[in-house]
Amino acid sequence: MLLKFCGAAGEVTGSCHMVQVEDTIVLLDCGIFQGGEERHIRNRQPFPFDPQKVKAVLLSHAHLDHCGRLPLLVKAGFKGKIFATDATCDLTKIVLLDAAKLQEEDAAWKIKRLKKKGEDWSWVSPLFTVQEAEQVFELFEPIPYGEWLEISPNLRFRFHDAGHLLGSAMVELRWQSDGIERKLLFTGDLGQKGLPIVRDPEPIEEADLLLMESTYGNRDHTMGFKECVEKLQEIVKETVHRGGRVLIPSFAVGRTQEILYALNDLVESKQLPILPVFVDSPMARAVLKVYQRHRELYDEEAEQKVIGGDEPFTFPGLKIIETVDESKMLNEFSEPCIIIAGSGMCTGGRIKHHLWHGIGNYNNAIVFVGFQAKGSLGRQLVEGVSPVRIFGEMHEVRAKIFMLDGFSAHADRKSLLQWTSNFVKPPAQTFAVHGEQEASIALVQSLKERFWNATVPQLGQELKM
Ligand SMILES: [Zn+2]
Q: Residues 171, 23: one domain?
């Protein structure tokens, strides 16, 4: 068996690991690199393996940093199957189409600007087009949790619930080596215990090789989910009282549904008055439909709500904004309201427009509900930087900034360690992936204190077993 780290090694994005058993090659994820100027170059570099020889991709979940290079893989000649849970297949389609549309718009905008300046624009092209994204869909093969599937006579796998996002999975790979059965477990992204809607991450008891995410390897969330909901209620009440608006930068897939679920509870139990809540995202409606279609994946609390007749993501006052014109009209809207828009780290998307208009107003509040990567506008705001640059202009930060990290869909330091304590004996080797250097190193340190053999892999590093 040969393992090669092709992304998310010493960093959070670009999740992709190659596993070769005899002559069968599979990929664990094929995610996009995000953040940093060099991402444009990195995403366009050739894969460090031959895509035509890859037999299958085992996709952990639908977030772009896990699935975003799939269209490039297909463009490079990949003809195998993409295995994922049914919900992940559905969500990935929405995510890739949205990304492709943004790429096309970006390229068109760049070309227009260069033409205007009379400069060469022939080098500009979208990373992938809508048509290229659609070619990925034909390769999807949905697999339920727990079902073994043979990729080759000596390589099989099954998915376990990772509790991070609807349909999110860990991948368990098994093969024979010298007459002994070996087992690799890839966590994908691990969810935080007690998150709404999704079930808790499945406990795993054994593995020879463990590839473990470490986004929060060096930090605990300051609040639990319930405390976050209470704090959100307080922030909304105060902001409404001041006549301001609450801006929530949020990923459209997963986090937004969590926030809606929380607001649904607050409004329907009358802990919050009915007020306009705008979800400013063209993909939100499609994602909600997937969440409504896959109720079989809900945790018990969400299931009970549905049985009791509640629609857990819709409540009076909620409006989903789809067109750009509707989105622009929100700038004229003068009543107190809540606006939820992407991207979650304010690196792009409609939230940037809302920040441009609202960040300088003392009455407003900006509520972060997830991880903010280095170099992102979100990270600057959370760290108290002011003024900040938005669309090339400096803006004084007068709105109140809050971080409700308990909404995060990632297990924090304590939960990651708790999850590892399910192992009856330490894996022969553990790799901390999907974390900024400090976070991955911290997780490795904590595991070493428990006498685990753990390291942070380098990008491109190979391991034979
Ligand atoms: Zn994720």
A: yes
Same domain, 283 and 340: yes
Cα(46) to centroid(ligand 1), Å: 24
Q: How far is the CA of 34 from the centre of ligand 1 (A)?
A: 13
Cα of 246 vs centre of ligand 1, distance in Å, is 25
What CATH number has the domain bearing residue 300?
3.40.50.10890
Residues 406-454: tens digit of each pLDDT: 998 999 999 999 999 999 999 999 999 999 999 999 999 999 999 999 9
Q: Domain check: are 403 and 413 in the same one?
A: no
| 267, 341, 200, 417: CA torsion to nearest 10 | -120
Q: Kind of pairing, strands 388-390 and 365-368? A: unpaired
Is residue 134 located within the same domain as residue 232?
no
Which residue in the block uniquely carries the two structure tokens 């208009």?
357
Q: If we measure between CA atoms, which residue out of 372, 406, 371, 401 comes closest to residue 386?
A: 401
Predicted confidence at residue 38, as pLDDT, reads 80
pLDDT of 465: 86
Centroid of ligand 1 to alpha carbon of 67 (angstroms): 10
CATH number at residue 60: 3.60.15.10
Point out the domain boundary residue: 382, 407, 432: 407
**Ligand 1 centroid vs 6 CA: distance in angstroms?**
17
Query: Does residue 369 share a domain with residue 236?
Result: yes
Give the distance (Å) from ligand 1 centre to CA of residue 164.
Answer: 7
Cα 434 to middle of ligand 1, angstroms: 10
Q: What is the number of other CB atoms lying within 10 angstroms of the CB of residue 230?
A: 16
Task: Give first-to-last CA distance, the chain, whole Å.
Answer: 5
Whole-number pLDDT of residue 456: 97
Query: How many domains does the structure of the chain reveal?
Result: 2
Q: What is the pTM for the complete model shown?
A: 0.92
Between the CA of 60 and the centroid of ligand 1 the distance, in Å, is 9
Q: At what angle do helices 437-449 and 413-420 cross, to 10 degrees?
A: 40
Residues by chain with Cβ below 5 Å of ion ligand 1:
63, 189
Supply the pLDDT for residue 115: 94
For ligand 1, the distance from its centroid to the CA atom of residue 253, given in whole angstroms, is 9
Residues 49 and 186 in one domain: yes
Instruction: Please tell me the distance between residue 261's alpha carbon and the centre of ligand 1 in angstroms.
Output: 19
Domain encompassing residue 185: 2-219+409-464
Q: What are phi and psi of 213, to 5 degrees?
A: -70, 155
Ligand 1 center to 312 CA (angstroms): 22
pLDDT, residue 455, reads 97
Ranges of residues in the chain with a pLDDT under 70 are: none
Distance 316 CA to ligand 1 centre (A): 30
Instruction: Calculate how far, in angstroms, residue 61's C-alpha sits from the geometric centre of ligand 1.
Output: 7
233 and 293 assigned to the same domain: yes
- 34/108 same-domain check: yes
Question: Beta partners for 158?
Answer: 172
